[in-house]
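Protein folds are increasingly written down as discrete tokens. With that in mind, we are printing a sequence and the tokens encoding its fold.
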Amino acid sequence: MNAVLHSSSSTASPAYSAFTSLLNWQEPLATRLQFRHDLPGQSANRLLNIELGLFLIVELLPFAAPEALPDLLNGEGVAYRHRPVWTPRQHRYLSRARTLLAPYRNRETWLKALTAYANLRPGLRVFTVQGQYTTGVSSFGLHERLSLFRRALA
């Protein structure tokens, strides 16, 4: 009986594997950021989540303010209704982001996250609070994060 239970539990289903992969999209960069910048706890993960939201705004609603992310994720609001025509890749980005950034569908949660992001050291942030790329991060650091965001949303 134990052998049967053990063998079935040790083989993960493809759906479970995809789900755990989805949840771990930030690794190993989050760990490197945590140790490189001496960040406490889950701060690096939160930083990457916020930056993923800002990246999504830049990619899908380039003229919208960062505060429009909840509207984008919920499919409502003026910025969403007046969006440009998206490519299939951009539609996939939004679909995936709705899962990865689900807590930020709540406007208050997103605004608190933006406030916390604004209080981080400029050398940590890839974006300004206005949602533009910053020059405070090395070109390698910028490329590393943007590549991570593209892979996470692909």
Confidence is low (pLDDT under 50) at residues 1-10, 16-20. Residues 71 and 77 are 5 Å apart (CA to CA).
